[in-house]
Write a structure and sequence with these properties.
This protein is α/β, with parallel strands linked by helices. It is about 35% helix and about 20% strand. It has a single domain, classed as 3-Layer(aba) Sandwich (UDP-N-acetylmuramoyl-L-alanine:D-glutamate ligase). It contains 8 helices and 9 strands.
């Protein structure tokens, strides 16, 4: 019998299908893995914005994780939207019992539309409870600035190294919020101290809903498949760039449309 490469996503549900759990599962499947999900919140959301967030009770979040891990297990874990301290604490408590599984944390704070996806008082809980369990953090520039408590200037290398030192994990700082013809993401590997830049030509499109979810899920998938960190990030970057390029050709909704998660299978 063959074995699936198993990836668990712990995140919020996006009713429009472009981000959150829905984007994660599409990405995990497209990257050759078997996806499982723990829904931490239900959002009332479309391509225009987020109208409401309904957090799933922490015991139910914990129950979902236990149900998956005690029966199926996981080769990689992606953590996305966690709305409250209680949610973060229960996730941390359970994952502490499963060391050795690569965990990618996308510190989701604000949606592409600009709507908040996290209570304002939970950032410290994320740092103290979840960061010690994580192999890789994938903040964008605004999220990185919130985590650091300072503005990230032109020298992203210093910011990435500073975050890695403070939080004792690897950092991928995403540069999509900067202006310019090139998008530059910077990876600091906390184990080796190596710094790697991933550069892509900026694609002129409004269809960027769920890019952060997609990238972090792709990285978790490639880590689960046994790739070293820099190679996993590189493969995920290539996947996302192709998904954005393919998604540019489509129209969906009246706001920020999704990327094309299955660009390698159908167009």
């Amino acid at each position: 019998m063959k074995n699936y490469t198993r990836v668990l996503t712990i995140a919020g549900s996006d009713s429009s299908g472009g981000a959150g759990i829905q984007a994660d599962l599409k990405t995990i499947a497209a990257c050759g893995c078997y996806g499982m999900s723990v829904i931490a919140a239900v959002t009332v959301q479309n391509t225009v914005g987020v109208d409401d967030v309904h957090p799933v009770p922490a015991p139910v979040i914990g129950g979902q994780i236990k149900a998956v891990m005690e029966d199926i297990g996981a080769d990689g874990i992606k953590i996305g939207m966690l709305y409250s301290k209680e949610a973060m604490n229960v996730v941390a408590e359970i994952l502490e019992g499963y060391p050795g599984i690569p965990v990618v944390l996308d510190p989701v704070m604000v949606a592409t539309s600009g709507d908040s996806l996290m209570l304002h008082d939970v950032c410290e809980t994320m740092k103290t409870r979840l960061f010690p369990l994580v192999q890789l953090l994938t903040p964008n520039i605004p999220e990185g600035e919130r985590l650091l408590g300072e503005t990230i200037g032109d020298n992203a290398l210093d910011a990435v190294a500073g975050m890695a030192k403070e939080y004792a994990c690897s950092i991928l700082l995403k540069g999509g919020h900067r202006n310019g013809t090139m998008v530059v993401d910077v990876l600091y590997d906390n184990d080796s101290g190596a710094m790697t830049s991933f550069e892509h030509i900026r694609i002129n499109t409004h269809n960027t809903h769920g890019t952060g979810c997609t990238l972090s899920s792709a990285i978790a998938s490639f880590l689960a498949r046994g790739l070293p960190l820099s190679e996993a990030v590189g493969r995920a970057e290539e996947y996302l760039h192709a998904a954005i390029l393919a998604g540019k050709e489509y129209s969906l909704g009246s706001g920020h449309g999704p990327v094309h998660h299955f660009h390698s299978f159908w167009r």
